[in-house]
Amino acid sequence: MALRKKKTQISVYLDPDVMTMLADYAARRNQSQSLVAEAAIASFLSPDAADRREAAFAKRLDQLDRRLARTERDVGIGIETLAVFIRFWLATTPALPEPAAQAARAKASERYDAFVTALGRRLAKGPRLRQEIPNDVPMDGNGAATS
Questions:
Q1: pTM for this one?
Q2: Of 10, 63, 68, 112, which one is least surrounded by beta carbons within 10 A?
Q3: Contact 134, 77 (CB under 8 A)
């Protein structure tokens, strides 16, 4: 039977917020506050603590990098979608004679409101356009899909 070393008791003054966090963490883990504090101090004083912190930072930076890449991809899809629509609309919609143009301007607000309502429904129920486009579609340097 191995002999167990007797632990040394210390007194520590903690900020009330830190004490609350310690108590909450210990309660969530169903561990004593003393055990949690001992593990935290040991981790802090460990010779590889800096390596662990660096690894944690690297992992977080990788996650942020992936999120930023997805955001850039999504913005690129949005811009390209808008550009394709505008080109198509300009190529297929003839200019209206003035009396018809006045009537079209009068109807524009109502049609715009219908568009915003439809867009709101689409965003509320999904799926999003970016979810319909596969992640493995190769893109060129300008964000356009390559063949």
A1: 0.45
A2: 10
A3: no
